[in-house]
Amino acid sequence: MSKKILVAGGAGFIGSHLCKRLLDYGDKVICLDNLQTCNKENINEFLLNPNFTFVLHDVTIPFQTEVDEIYNLACPASPVHYQLDPIKTTRTSVLGAINMLDLAMDNNAKILQFSTSEIYGDPSIHPQPESYWGNVNTTGIRSCYDEGKRCAETLFFDYYRQFNTKIRVVRIFNTYGPKMAENDGRVVSNFIMQALKGEDITIFGVGNQTRSFQYIDDLIEGVIKMMNNDKNFIGPVNIGNSNEFTIKELAEIILKLIPESKSKIIYKDLPKDDPKRRKPVIDLAKQMLDWEPKIKLEEGLKKTIEYFKQRIK
User: SS3 string of 117-133?
Assistant: First the structure.
């Protein structure tokens, strides 16, 4: 039986992949987005699908519709975008969460919050389990996003405790793949674009800070399993790849996969509050969702590089 599903932030990189998967399942999808940080091209392929509806709307403003499930992704997610208007970023995280939770209550619908590994800040323990409360600067240039997402988690659990709202919370780690924006400032898209254009590949710091990269298909599989789990498991749960790479290793792999590139690696000062190590503990996802990532880094990067090659053409 098909469901009616609202995807807030559905025109973005992750949201558009989620919309596609839900449409493939035969669900009716309402994509809500203000297009602040994404391109409508991401959803062009769905516009003629009778099960797909696009609504230009900002989640800081209440929204009404009939719906069975809600996925809340609405918020700028890369430092370049969320630092442009930090107050707007916090408003989107907090007011957006309230408005989507109220909509879920009105419909007795399930609602899943896309939280983030950024809630762990610059972690003082490694790797990061869900039980870790984080090490976050409340007054830094990244705080609008980190604290906004932390507050959204608080709201979800307070709605659950106070109103028995049907919540799910996932904390997603670095995700990459086709439909990433070329200019979003994220490390994978930055390095690929620089390598394809023959520009210097810019590493901030000495390149020994680490990240764990998951391919978009693995993420989508994980969040849908979380939404549909029948154990009343509400999270939070880490959804990420536990294979850890240094930023320098990532740059070297991308150069290996683009052998025609004439790019050289250069080094610049590390931005303030940039996390030094980031790796999820995913035991809970394995246990409760029977989920773990399947796509290796090089396999996913090849697909992403091919996407960006087509974009450049």
Answer: HHHHECCCCCCECCCCC
